[in-house]
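Below is a filled-in request sheet from our internal design queue. Each sheet records the structural input a requester submitted and the sequence that came back. We keep these sheets so that new team members can see what a complete request looks like end to end.

REQUESTER: design group, bay 2
PRIORITY: normal
MODE: inverse folding
CHAIN LENGTH: 140
BACKBONE (tokenized):
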């Protein structure tokens, strides 16, 4: 399990940092570029779980209409596609709880829900609340 981390300043110039880097999965053998510390923690968790058969990062592409007036079509790349050892599949998106209700995120999640329904996959949205429940984030 090789991890390379970098701290970068937020693009919008606000205070605070986010963590990016590369993680090599012990389960899949693939190297994935993560965009947050939460994603890194979840990748490590997936590798440790016995009930996870395999997983991929940003491998699913879901088209969605981003602007109803113009009909602008964009692609959404959910964070994780997980295959469990019992054969079920889950599509997982990791977002801070304060962003889940934003219009742009809701458009993507509606498109993901439709895709999941059509493909027999369960959609899971993980926020800091669920990540803390799994023991991946420190409780304050």
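RETURNED SEQUENCE:
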């Amino acid at each position: 399990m090789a991890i390379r981390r970098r701290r970068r300043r937020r693009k919008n110039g606000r205070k605070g940092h986010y963590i990016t880097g590369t993680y090599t999965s012990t389960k899949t053998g693939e190297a994935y570029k993560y965009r947050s510390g939460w994603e890194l923690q979840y990748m490590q968790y997936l590798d440790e779980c016995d009930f996870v058969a395999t997983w991929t990062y940003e491998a699913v592409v879901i088209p969605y209409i981003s602007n109803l007036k113009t009909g602008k079509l964009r692609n959404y790349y959910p964070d994780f596609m997980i295959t469990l050892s019992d054969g079920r599949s889950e599509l997982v998106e990791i977002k801070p709880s304060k962003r889940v209700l934003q219009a742009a995120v809701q458009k993507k999640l509606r498109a993901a829900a439709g895709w999941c329904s059509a493909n027999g996959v369960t959609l899971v949205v993980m926020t800091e609340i669920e990540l803390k429940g799994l023991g991946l984030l420190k409780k304050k």
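SHEET NOTES:
- The radius of gyration is 16 Å.
- The CA atoms of residues 63 and 75 lie 4 Å apart.
FILED BY: M.R.
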